[in-house]
Design goal:
- The structure is a single chain.
- The chain is mostly helical.
- It has a domain of about 80 residues.
């Protein structure tokens, strides 16, 4: 045991880092030392010797936390190592619990006064904290909440996080939902409530919270996951029509390809009619009012296999269609109508040549001209391409870089 402790102490000493050290140096060696320590400590915990590693891992967490304040860890490697050490410390504490009040004080201080890492997970430490330690965390968090400054965003966030975690480890679903509901600032927060109620078998309440979240945070990040959860729960209870209505309503709100695909997937799952005709009709109405919806119409038509309609729609107002979409349309159209893609290809060449924001515009334009030549050859219009190329070279003769790029592909 003494030998193990000596060797572990040497590994922990390697985790001490001078703040004056170049922040970009020594990260790999530091990470290797942390991983070796974790491997050795994990073996001892597995062997039932948690008491030996508890103080070692505590010191390692403190040293790594401090080291990361002056080390470049943009890759997140050392941060991941620290989180592993923290998890291992919780495991060790469960087998050889330290004083629960002191452990509680350290965890609260790390969360509230630390630099933001490692992540404190009370559920991991709950076995070591026990009832006495959890009660101490509750007391300390309440004390912090009473004295936290209104401008201390980090402190308020840490207190909120700990309160939510305390509610979680309490096992009281209603308490947990109540605490989460105090800060309904995002769709993800509604999603957490939905998840906990759903896991507890309280589907009706979960559905209600999902609907509330979609109404309050429509279009926010995380709403797609919330909508998927709502649809899944409705389908689970046989609400096929309700699930389809949710998908249709989202497409009406935001008629885009992703919304159509979700609608079509749900329709296929319940054996309902393909919503493609209704989706296309709605998009045509939107396009008539706002031409900016044309790309979405083209995307949906393409996704449903209506390639001719997609082509016709795009040709009606080509300026609304991005170059990438045009390339996709042209590549498909070339197979059946090579003559029809010649003019659109020529238009894309001009757009590419004059795209001053693209430093590779000449090379990409040359690639398009090569594709244009292939289309002319497939259409039996080689003379047309020869005339086009002569005219192109003449118009851009004062752009030697463009001509050189073109010659590289010829």
């Amino acid at each position: 045991m003494d030998r193990d402790l000596t060797e572990l102490s040497a590994l922990v000493d390697a985790l001490r880092r001078d703040r004056r050290t170049d922040p970009y140096r020594g990260r790999r060696q530091y990470s290797l030392a942390a991983r070796e320590l974790a491997e050795r400590c994990a073996a001892l915990v597995d062997a039932g010797d948690g008491a030996t590693v508890v103080p070692v891992l505590r010191k390692a967490v403190d040293r790594m936390t401090a080291a990361l304040t002056s080390m470049d860890d943009s890759s997140g490697i050392v941060g991941d190592d620290l989180q592993q050490i923290m998890h291992l410390y919780a495991r060790a504490c469960a087998t050889a619990p330290p004083d629960p009040k002191r452990l509680a004080a350290w965890l609260v201080q790390l969360e509230c006064d630390g630099p933001g890492w490692p992540r404190v997970l009370l559920r991991d430490f709950a076995p070591a904290l026990g009832g006495k330690g959890i009660a101490e965390v509750e007391r300390l968090v309440a004390e912090r909440a009473a004295t936290a400054g209104p401008d201390s965003w980090a402190g308020r966030f840490a207190i909120r996080d700990l309160r939510e975690q305390l509610a979680d480890v309490s096992g009281d679903i209603d308490r947990y939902v109540q605490v989460l509901a105090e800060h309904l600032e995002s769709a993800q927060q509604y999603g957490r409530i939905v998840d906990v109620l759903r896991s507890a078998g309280r589907a009706a309440e979960a559905i209600d919270w999902a609907r509330r979240g979609l109404a309050a945070k429509s279009g926010w990040p995380g709403t797609e996951e919330l909508r998927d959860a709502l649809v899944g729960m409705l389908l689970d209870r046989g609400g096929d029509g309700e699930a389809l209505a949710v998908r249709a309503a989202e497409f009406e709100r935001h008629p885009a390809l992703a919304a159509y695909r979700a609608w079509a997937h749900t329709a296929a799952r319940v054996g309902a009619a393909d919503p493609a005709p209704a989706a296309v009709e709605r998009l045509r109405r939107h396009v008539a009012e706002r031409p900016a919806y044309l790309p979405e119409l083209v995307d949906v038509l393409t996704a449903t296999g209506a390639h001719d309609e997609a082509w016709t729609a795009a040709r009606a107002d080509p300026d609304q269609i991005s170059r990438q979409r045009w390339l996709t349309l042209i590549e498909h159209r070339t197979l059946t109508d090579p003559a029809g893609v010649i003019e659109p290809y020529a238009r894309l060449v001009e757009l590419q040549v004059n795209d001053s924001g693209d430093k590779h515009r000449y090379r990409r334009a040359a690639q398009l001209i090569t594709a244009l030549q292939e289309a002319c050859r497939a259409a039996g219009q080689q003379d047309r391409f020869a005339a086009y190329l002569t005219d192109f070279r003449d118009r851009y003769r004062r752009r030697p870089s463009l001509i050189n790029a073109l010659d590289e592909f010829r």
